[in-house]
Amino acid sequence: MKNTLPIAPLQDASDADLARRVAAGETSVFEILMRRHNRTLFRTARAILRDDAEAEDSLQEAYMQAYGAIGSFRGDAKLSTWLARIVANEALMRLRKRTRRSEIVPLQSSTTLENFNDIPDPSMEKSPENSAQRAQTRQLLEAQIDALPDSYRTVFMLRAVEEMSVEETATVLQIPEATVRSRFFRARSLLREALASKIDLAFEEAFAFAGERCDRIVADVMRRIGDKP
């Protein structure tokens, strides 16, 4: 495949332009798209699967599907919405498989929480006490989000954390907009009941996408693309 133009000049290009370049054979440009949307798409998979490792695997597989089908992207919706739909489909398929397996062999639930200090907020006070307090609050928020019913949790992640519109969320999850609104309202109510005034302190840093994970996913996908005949 072609891999002729340097990546740097393309950093400010639109998603649609980048998608056209990838479809035309500029493989290296796909790395820009991955890095641009990695965090949002990881959060989408993580909201559905509630497991970091499975979310990573799901995201990689979804990227491979997106790379193979990017020529079919026509720009009718945002590329981010198109990608999120592919990720959601892959994650939901894995969730259904996991559910079927759990009916035979009970699965151990994961209690490992993401370390949110990997992407610091420059505006934060840097004292150890403040950092520790905010880390505890973010961990509490993640635990409460994980505890939401599946249908509420995914809507909440897309609407509140990723700030997708009602229309975008409905497209990604293939549910009516009215359902998005009602589930989001209910999810917020459940979280506020659990967290009270603490809930608004940690939205921005919840489920942070660490640079190391971003690099690993990009490297693995690019390697797999390079291995394709």
Outline the structure in words.
By secondary structure, the protein is mostly helical. The chain folds into two domains: 8-109 and 210-227, Rna Polymerase Sigma Factor, Chain: A, CATH 1.10.1740.10; 116-201, Arc Repressor Mutant, subunit A, CATH 1.10.10. It has nine helices and no strands. It has helices at 15-23, 29-49, 52-69, 79-102, 128-146, 150-161, 166-173, 177-195, 211-227. The longest helix is centred in the middle third of the chain and has 24 residues, at 79-102.
Could you provide a short overview of the structure?
The chain is mainly α and 229 residues long.
Report how far apart the termini are: 10 Å
**Oligomeric status:** single chain
- Beta-strand percent range: under 5%
Order of helices and strands: HHHHHHHHH
CATH superfamily of the largest domain: RNA polymerase sigma factor, region 2, helix turn helix motif
- Summed up, the helix count is 9
Structural class: mainly alpha
What Rg, in angstroms, do the CA atoms define?
18 Å
Main beta sheet: none
Query: Low-confidence parts, pLDDT < 50 over ≥5 residues?
Result: 103-125
| Shape call | globular
The count of DSSP E runs of length 2 or more, i.e. the number of strands, is 0
CATH level-1 class of the largest domain: Mainly Alpha
CATH architecture of the largest domain: Orthogonal Bundle
Helix percentage:
55-70%
Overview features:
Rna Polymerase Sigma Factor, Chain: A, 2 domains, single chain, 229 residues, mainly alpha, Arc Repressor Mutant, subunit A
Question: How is this fold's topology laid out?
Answer:
Layout: H1 15-23, H2 29-49, H3 52-69, H4 79-102, H5 128-146, H6 150-161, H7 166-173, H8 177-195, H9 211-227
Helix pairs in contact: 1-2, 2-3, 2-4, 2-6, 2-9, 3-4, 3-9, 4-7, 6-8, 7-8
